[in-house]
Amino acid sequence: MRVVHRFQNERMQLELSISDDKLKLFAQVVPGEKHEDAQVSELIEQLLQVTVEPLIEGVVVDDIIAQLREGKGCEGRRIAKGESPVLGRDGKLVWLVRRFKPGNSNQPTKELSDFYNLGLFENIEAGKEVARLYKPTSGSPGMDVQGKPLPSRAGKAFNARFDKTIQFKPDESRDDYQTLIATVSGYAHEEGDKVTICETLVISNNLDYEMGHIDFVGGVKVGGDVQKGFHIKARGDIEIVGSVLGENQLTSDASIIVRGFHQGGAESFVRARANYTVGIAQGVQAEAGGTISVKKEARDCTFRASVAVLAPEAIIVGGTVWCVKGFEGKQLGNDMAVRTVVEIRNELEVTAEYRQVEESISKHEAALAALELHIGPYLQNRKRVPLLNPKFRMKITDLIGKYDYVQASVEKLKEKIKAMKAAKPPEADSRVNVTGVAHAGLVLSTSAFSLEIKDSQKGPISYRPLEASSEWVVQEYQPLFKG
Fold first, then answer.
1. Which domain holds residue 398?
2. Nearest-5° angle of CA 243, CA 249, CA 252?
3. Which pTM value belongs to this model?
4. Are residues 208 and 319 in the same domain?
5. 347 and 239 both lie in a single domain
6. What gap in Å lies between CA 144 and CA 149, rounded to an integer?
7. Is residue 57 a contact partner of residue 93, using CB atoms and an 8 Å limit?
8. Tally of domains within the chain
9. Successive 10-residue mean pLDDT values, the chain, 483 residues
């Protein structure tokens, strides 16, 4: 502190000091011989030599004079106070959604019992409010304890670059911030001074416990492998640069590409509204609204394509292929005569709905078999049921009722399957093309008739189903698609 004023008379000895920040004035008072005659106006008169009246704390002045009249002084008591300047607030971006930052910073700090469902980002639909950009404020000046102005500082604008995935929404009722709206669907991403909505979720390494399952409104690209048991659901394309290692569920409203090896499993499936492309597949169940393409090999897979299955340089061994337009592959089956089935079906038969009806029939038939075991001979000889003792008769009657209900459901499902088969015949120019060799064990089918290849046949050849004669014929090779 710095002493700025001294005063002495027969009533008091006064010393005024200012704090280093120039905002506070302190008084040191020592009683004089005639201290009982001290007056408030006398003290204020001395204070006005240093400060201005609005800053003087009148209650303190009154108390000092009251104490002085009793012969008591004070040591360093604050008697006036200035006003600190109000600094301008910097502009800032306040997110209204959970944003995603790649790396270990995404790992939740709390303990989790489910390491598959981490929810590290928030899906954002186009048109959603994602953030508020607050404007900087100018601030206001202050005043030191001597009445001199203290300058303020205006806040700095938030420094960021916004691309076309974000637009500013005007709001006439608010002038302190602007609302940011997503123009595309994706996730919010902030890196350095760049703010954007990313339409593709890029995972540079493997999909594993660091990310968990993915359910995203855009596309997904995995730079490494999809580890066993992890699932991806996306509205856009799914691209996996590495391999898929088993028991994974991949679902896309667009296309799916697995550039490496795709291992299936009992709990795995692939559903692509457009196309599915794979390097090597083993035990994969895949449905595609477009084309299924195999680059090198597929073993024991179940493929259903609403257009075609194309494997011009690949080997297809075992499993079942369903397609509408047709199939083209280099090698079907192997020299061990492994049963390999290619079926030409109509557009309805290759759909997920058809498969669900088939699965329902299988489940119903399994239930019928179990009921037959419980009912025993009474199922075929129902006249004996009334002769049973009441308790057992009631049980058998209930089981027979359930059996009849399930049997009726099976018949309805089979009628639905029949209607789907008859709704539209296979395309007239559908065919199965083999450019290399069709091995013994290959079975070519439609919903009405089939052909099993007994002896291997070298290509290039085309197999074509003729509905009129209910047979498959071998023809000179013709490409599936013209041009």
1. 362-423
2. 95
3. 0.75
4. yes
5. yes
6. 6
7. no
8. 4
9. 93 95 95 94 94 95 95 94 94 90 47 58 93 93 94 92 91 86 93 90 92 93 96 97 97 98 95 97 97 98 96 97 96 96 90 85 94 92 91 93 94 89 76 96 94 95 91 93 71
